[in-house]
Amino acid sequence: MSSVRSIPYLLAALFLASVLPAEAQLSPAEPDPLARIRDAAQANVQACSATGETLCEQVAPKIIENALGESPLAENLRRLTDEIGGRVTGTPEAARAVAWGVGAFRDAGVDIHTEKYTIPATWSEGATHLEILSPAPFPVRLVSVGWAAGTPSGGLEAGVILVGEGTEADFARIGSSARGAILLIHSEPLRTWEDLFQEYMKAPGVISRAKSAGAAAILWMSTRERLLLYRHSNSYDGKIDPFPQAIVAREDALRIEHFLATGRGVRVRLDIPNRIGGPMEQENVVAEIRGREKPDEWVLLGAHLDSWELGTGALDNGCNAAMVIEAARDILRTGVKPRRSIRFVLFTGEEQGMIGSWAYVRAHRAELDRARAAIVFDEGIGRVTGYLLSARPDIEDGVREALKPLESWGVTQHVMDAPLGTDNFDFLVEGVPNLIANQEEANYLPNYHAASDTLDKVDFLQLKVNTAIAAVTTFGIAERAAPLGPRQSRAEIESLLNTSGLEEQMKTAGLWPLWQSGERGRMP
Predict the structure, then answer these.
(1) Residues sharing a CB contact under 8 Å with residue 378, sequence separation 6 or more, in sequence order
(2) pLDDT tens track of the chain, all 524 residues?
(3) Is the pTM for the entire model greater than 0.85?
(4) DSSP H helical segments within 285-364, as ranges?
(5) Residues 70 and 252 sit within 8 Å (Cβ to Cβ)
(6) Rounded to whole angstroms, how far apart are CA atoms 343 and 37?
């Protein structure tokens, strides 16, 4: 495909209808599908320019014009996804992706360096295979769970036990039959963000119960329709999960489930010859625009650079890695330095428990009192409707102020959710104000971590709009006269974790002991 996706004018009109007021919506016959959105942004700027705010008068319109105009955004993303592809932390592809990020920031004219850290282990999949021995052989498509242990050399032969969704009641029902067996865990198709969150949160409990019951391995029924395969990890600290697990294509898993539900025993030979190595040095990519008045204070805009290798990681999270680079370029091209410094970071190790951003926070603990905000994009290509504010209502007014130039774009639906699962987490537990872009699901969820996560799914018109939103938000927070919000104390963070429900998520994921010890989060 070409480096810039062709977008029919009708589709562009439908998109713009969703982000612009009626008077600014686009006619399908218009030759420039971005013209009206530029005009709407300019109207916002003119409306607030009477207040004399530098952001409105000088910078916001320039950022927007840069973001919506010609740029290397699409070509950068094409190089990352088509020439490098999947980028598992600890692989040569991940190293090439770091070099890509360094080169793209350098081409944008932004000061750039890398910061090293060490991952606890490296991992790659061998020739995962499942052979149905009885009652009726058929080919089964499956992949190993990421960062999971492999089976013994030569694989293992065992019966399969149907365990429902793997709840405590399910394990009580199957009793001692789990010992030495391979367990099949049922799932429902993925439809919403909540479904995805539940898939991640239920796994640790199932694994713990399976190990206690003496099971040999787990087969997870794919939550994706038909035969679409995907991968994720159940590790939140970068260490190898000491239990063999695989994700089975949904139709194949349903067929096995049918045999078991109708009383026909299923016996299989499972081979998961994963390749596991020791600690290895990795890098985050860090660029910076120094502030003109308070250069030692900083706002961070980040996205994760790594991805699983089944697809090319275009939606998760290549599009946002490319967007962060473009946001830096668009801000720099205005010729106006922000009041505070802005750091643009491409984190690696996100898929293994956010270990790259954890390493970044550890390395910069001495200066976190001067960190004014961390803004993270990690929800693909969907329209940005606002930000998740991580249970910090005290920062909402400042976020709305930063977004005032984009008022008519509808980026106003801020929510207080504090989910576990992306690179804002270690900033949150250090007390730094943090935001996650709240994006519509669009075509992101079905392709999340899947073989179908490829460049053809990227809507470049939407990516340009998201770039403008990210850049205006970041510059606006960096430019504020007052900081967005204070750094919270450990007591305040602990209260937030409890009231937001994040404490329970951390306990489920095995992160709570790291918080209690001070190894992860603000020191006691």
Answers:
(1) 303, 304, 316, 317, 320, 350, 422, 423, 436, 437
(2) 222 223 333 333 333 444 443 333 333 444 555 555 555 555 554 444 433 455 555 899 999 999 999 999 999 999 999 999 999 999 999 999 999 999 999 999 999 999 999 999 999 999 999 999 999 999 999 999 999 999 999 999 999 999 999 999 999 999 999 999 999 999 999 988 888 888 999 999 999 999 999 999 999 999 999 899 999 999 889 999 989 999 999 999 999 999 999 999 999 999 999 999 999 999 999 999 999 999 999 999 999 999 999 999 999 999 999 999 999 999 999 999 999 999 999 999 999 999 999 999 999 999 999 999 999 999 999 999 999 999 999 999 999 999 999 988 999 999 999 999 999 999 999 999 999 999 998 678 889 999 999 999 999 999 999 999 999 999 999 999 999 999 999 999 999 999 999 999 999 999 999 999 999 999 98
(3) yes
(4) 319-332, 355-363
(5) no
(6) 28
Residue 290, number of CB atoms within 10 A of its CB: 14
- The pair of structure tokens assigned to 19 is 């982000």
Structure tokens at 430: 């250090």
